[in-house]
Amino acid sequence: MKTIHRLSIGGVAACALALFATPMLAQKDSAVSLGRLSTGAIMRFVKDASDQWGIEMAGGDAPHLTQAQPARFEIYTGAIPGPVSDAGIKTLAGSYKTVAKSADGVIASGFHA
Questions:
Q1: Contact present, 56 and 68 (Cβ < 8 Å)
Q2: Cα–Cα distance between 24 and 105 in angstroms, integer?
Q3: How far apart are CA 95 and CA 23, in angstroms?
Q4: SS3 state of residue 61
Q5: 28 falls in which pLDDT band (50, 70, 90)?
Q6: Most CB atoms closer than 10 Å: which of 29, 58, 70, 87?
Q7: How many other C-beta atoms are found inside a 10 Å radius of the C-beta of residue 22?
Q8: The whole model's pTM is what?
Q9: Nearest residue to 31 via CA among 15, 43, 19
């Protein structure tokens, strides 16, 4: 059964993100660390040349992976009670406009498709 609303963060369940932040909190750096995985790989947000934020995993035994559009939404636009096919599902993928460290971790906001 498909979920009507789903948010997937680059397939990495280790990242917990809030979707709201003030622009004043935005990082000026080109990378913000999320932490180290048990494999030794480091997860971090990385800013591209157009100032949009994606996710990168590198180091340890893991291959170097980059997800330029880590936020993914599936929006159901069909009839209720729910989808019987994928025809009424629209998928949007995008990057984040701002990333900032907070007391509880990292906040990414401003979905950019």
A1: no
A2: 17
A3: 16
A4: coil
A5: low
A6: 70
A7: 10
A8: 0.64
A9: 43
